[in-house]
């Protein structure tokens, strides 16, 4: 498996996030004013030996949930227009 950041084939074995202290959550924009945000919990990760990037993975429960809701997800920020530099306030 290749690292999505540097492209090296040096990812660690699958590891667990420490669920007792914190858990990474993937949040999308609310589909309506009073509706809850779609949330997906990251329970596992691999680490790249070359660049030390952490690559998160969803467990099977959240993989199924993401697959079911894929077409209804709304990004939290609009996609950038090609050729337009990001604004200084942009998180990306």
Task: Give a verbal description of the structure.
- The chain has 92 residues and is an alpha+beta fold.
- The protein has a domain at 15-72.
- 11% of the residues lie in helices and 22% in strands.
- It has 1 helix and 4 strands.
- It has one helix at residues 60-69, and strands spanning 15-16, 24-27, 39-47, 54-58.
- Strands 1, 2, 3 and 4 form a 4-stranded antiparallel sheet that branches.
- Strand 3 and strand 4 (54-58) form a beta hairpin.
- The longest helix is centred in the C-terminal third of the chain and has 10 residues, at 60-69.
- The model has no long low-confidence stretch (mean pLDDT 82).
Strand fraction: 15-25%
Give the averaged pLDDT, no decimals.
82
- Largest sheet data: 4 strands, antiparallel
Categorize the overall geometry: globular
Helix content: 10-25%
H/E topology pattern: EEEEH
CA-based gyration radius? 16 Å
Briefly note the structural class of the backbone.
alpha+beta
**How far do the termini sit from each other?**
25 Å
Tags for this model:
alpha+beta, 4 strands
Record the SSE blueprint.
Layout: E1 15-16, E2 24-27, E3 39-47, E4 54-58, H1 60-69
Antiparallel strand pairs: 1-3, 2-3, 3-4
Write a brief structural summary:
The chain is of the alpha+beta class and 92 residues long. The chain is built from 1 helix and 4 strands; from the N terminus they run ββββα.
